[in-house]
Design brief:
The protein is built from 10 helices and 8 strands. It is of the alpha/beta class and about 300 residues long. It has a single domain, classed as Ureohydrolase domain (Arginase, Chain A, 3-Layer(aba) Sandwich). Strand 4 (about 120-125), helix 5 and strand 5 (about 170-175) form a beta-alpha-beta unit.
């Protein structure tokens, strides 16, 4: 029997500059994510949406930072729900919400991986590396900090608790990157993060680059968390995101990535983030994201219904 799946709603928009991502979880539900997964044979439980706890009084000398206490509160709530899912041996799918939800989702699944003696790996499907720290961010938008936090970079205390099982930066692969700040560039290189930008993809193709990373995960008997940002995709096919960057993955490339991930058998958790229904066109992006999730969990091109986007 397939592993049970838990859906965890993360209606968070405090990490982004443009409102609307708080509607993302319900848009994915409306687009049919639960019945689609059930049709593929998975038992699915929807745990509902995370709820913002009482906020702590948190300050930081970087005056650009926006909504620090709220974002830290959301991270705590999401991590608690993630802990519940993985401790039940369910595969969690975190429905965002902006990418700051990974401040809570990834620590939960990495902790469980470490407790079972397996190394956690991270695949970051995004236009941006999100490798800022609280000190380096100039926009102050906290959806740009998760990977730095997850990999144990300094400067997050006391706003965020220490990560119980930081992911080794050398176990992080970023695909589709095409917008990097100078401070992130230096830090990514120094920490050994694997970054495949769109030039590398144009030269070598998604398949070859992803296969190399998946081989590393398998060789280490690792677990893999996939974090899928809407802006990984080209905005022509996925307009419902506030951080559009031209030149993203095409429909065919994105489905190839998902089907390869399914074939690998190493994916143990998933984020679906940055869906902003306020910017969508008749649910076009929400339906595409659900279709991509379906591909990750076993739907093949021959099974895909005809649909007008």
């Amino acid at each position: 029997m397939p592993q049970p799946i838990c859906l965890i709603g993360a209606p968070v928009e405090t990490g982004a500059s443009q409102p609307g991502c708080l509607m993302g979880p319900d848009a994915l539900r409306t687009a049919g994510i639960k019945p689609v997964l059930e049709q593929l044979g998975y038992p699915v439980t929807d745990l509902g949406n995370a709820v913002l706890p009482d906020l702590k009084d948190i300050d930081h000398p970087n005056r650009a930072i926006r909504h620090l206490a709220e974002t830290a509160g959301w991270a705590e709530a999401i991590r608690t729900m993630g802990d519940t899912a993985v401790d039940r041996d369910h595969l969690p799918i975190f429905l965002g919400g902006d990418h700051s939800i990974s401040l809570g989702s990834v620590p939960a699944v990495a902790r469980k991986s470490a407790e079972t003696g397996r190394k956690p790996f991270l695949l970051w499907l995004d236009a941006h590396p999100d490798f800022h720290t609280l000190d380096s961010t100039t926009s102050g938008n906290l959806h740009g900090i998760p990977v730095a936090y997850i990999t144990g970079q300094g400067g997050f205390d006391p706003a965020f608790p220490p990560v119980p099982a930081p992911i080794d930066p050398r176990h992080v692969c970023m695909l589709g990157i095409r917008s990097v700040d100078v401070s992130e560039h230096d830090s990514l290189r120094r920490n050994g993060v694997t970054v495949h930008d769109m030039r590398a993809i144009d030269e070598h193709g998604f398949g070859r680059l992803l296969m190399g990373f998946l081989d590393d995960v398998k060789a280490a008997d690792g677990t893999l968390h996939v974090s899928l940002d809407v802006d990984f995709l080209d905005p022509d096919i996925a307009p419902a995101v506030g951080t559009t960057v031209p030149g993203g993955a095409t429909f065919r490339e994105a489905h190839l990535v998902m089907e390869m991930l399914c074939d690998s058998g190493v994916v143990t958790s998933l984020d679906v983030v940055e869906l902003n229904p306020f910017l969508d066109e008749r649910g076009k992006t929400a339906k595409l994201m659900v279709d991509l999730v379906a591909s990750l969990f076993g739907r093949r091109v021959m099974d895909r219904p005809t649909r007008s986007y």
